[in-house]
Each structure stands twice: as structure tokens, then as C-alpha cells.
UniProtKB/TrEMBL annotation:
Keyword Cell cycle: yes
Protein name: Speedy C isoform X2
Record-stated family: Belongs to the Speedy/Ringo family.
Species classification: Eukaryota, Metazoa, Chordata, Craniata, Vertebrata
GO molecular function, one term: protein kinase binding
InterPro entries tied to this protein: Speedy, Speedy-Ringo_regulator
Keywords: Cell cycle
One Pfam family linked to the record: Spy1
Superkingdom, natural source: Eukaryota
Length: 176
């Protein structure tokens, strides 16, 4: 990274974000997303960029806002509907009842960012470049999960929601 460029996020924001990633619920979610379908390094960098764009106070860095931002990042960047897996993690077993409220929160968050949902690859790389060896930035999605396989070529169980406390579906391509 060019040292004359200004970082897209402040050091305090990165540190608070890294602390948030150590939250038990978030860590378990990230561990369960073994194929990195909803939480690869670029999507996580987008969450931090979103927190900065929304001008969030550090005390607003919490589990609900993390999943709100992650859901928005997936909505903006991903073609496949794997973002639905986020709902049972953040909303619990009755997620389908609470989903309209969560979607309202996601829309308010998006509005707070002035509807600036796109984050360039270079911005993500700049964010990751500040602490390149942090474990979050080592979450590289494998090429076979780059969504070159259209949904009609995928097996139905791939789209089934699992939620907390349930093993992820074994990926025959990743040998899980």
C-alpha cells in the first residue's frame, strides 16, 4: 500500500472490528462457514468499510450490526442466496418471524451509509493491507466456490438453512 494514501478506516475501527470478530457467536458462525460462502475476506472487509461509511461509534460494533452489515454485503455482492444462512444465527430459531424487522434494520443501515453499498476491490485490499496477517484476511474462498456453477447444477441440500449448533453440509469439493 502506498504510505501516502489515507487508510479507508481508522486504527481504532480496525481494532474494535477485530475484537468483535472474537465474539463467540461470530466466531462460531465463521467456523461453520467452512467454504466461505458468506464470509470470505472480501465480505468481511466490506463489513468494516460499511461500519466506517455508516460513521458508527465504536460502541455500536456489536453482533447484530455485524450480521446486518454482512447480510448487506452478501446482498450487494453475491448471486447465490447463501446469505439466508445468516438469519438463524442473528435472529434465532424463530428467524422467519423476525426477518421483516431485520430487513428494516438492514435498510436503515444502508440508508445511514447513503446507499453506498459497493466497495471496490482496491478498498478491500487497502483495508486488509493494514493488518495483512490477521486471520480474517486469510479467509480465501476456493475457486470452485466462485459461483461459476449455476444454481441448477447445484444439489438442493446446498441451499438448506442450517443455523447454530448444526454441522455444515459436507462439501464434496472441499472434502469436508
Amino acid at each position: 500500500m502506498n504510505t501516502t494514501e489515507e487508510s479507508p478506516v481508522r486504527k481504532e475501527e480496525r481494532e474494535e472490528f477485530f475484537k468483535l470478530l472474537e465474539n463467540d457467536i461470530i466466531k462460531e458462525y465463521l467456523d461453520q462457514d467452512r467454504c466461505l460462502r458468506t464470509s470470505d475476506k472480501f465480505l468481511l472487509a466490506m463489513v468494516l468499510a460499511y461500519f466506517h461509511r455508516a460513521k458508527m461509534d465504536l460502541d455500536e460494533y456489536n453482533v447484530l450490526m455485524f450480521f446486518t452489515a454482512l447480510s448487506l454485503a452478501n446482498m450487494v455482492e453475491e448471486d447465490e442466496p447463501f446469505q439466508r444462512e445468516i438469519y438463524p444465527w442473528v435472529l434465532g430459531q424463530t428467524w422467519f418471524v423476525l426477518l421483516p424487522e431485520f430487513e428494516r434494520l438492514r435498510n436503515l443501515f444502508w440508508e445511514r451509509m447513503n446507499y453506498r453499498g459497493l466497495v471496490t476491490r482496491s478498498t478491500c485490499e487497502q483495508i486488509m493491507g493494514e493488518d495483512p496477517m490477521h486471520w480474517a484476511w486469510l479467509r480465501v474462498r476456493k475457486d470452485h466456490h466462485s459461483w461459476v456453477f449455476r444454481s441448477h447444477l447445484r444439489w438442493k441440500d446446498e441451499y438448506r438453512l442450517r443455523g447454530p449448533g448444526r454441522s455444515p453440509i459436507n462439501c464434496y469439493l472441499c472434502a469436508f
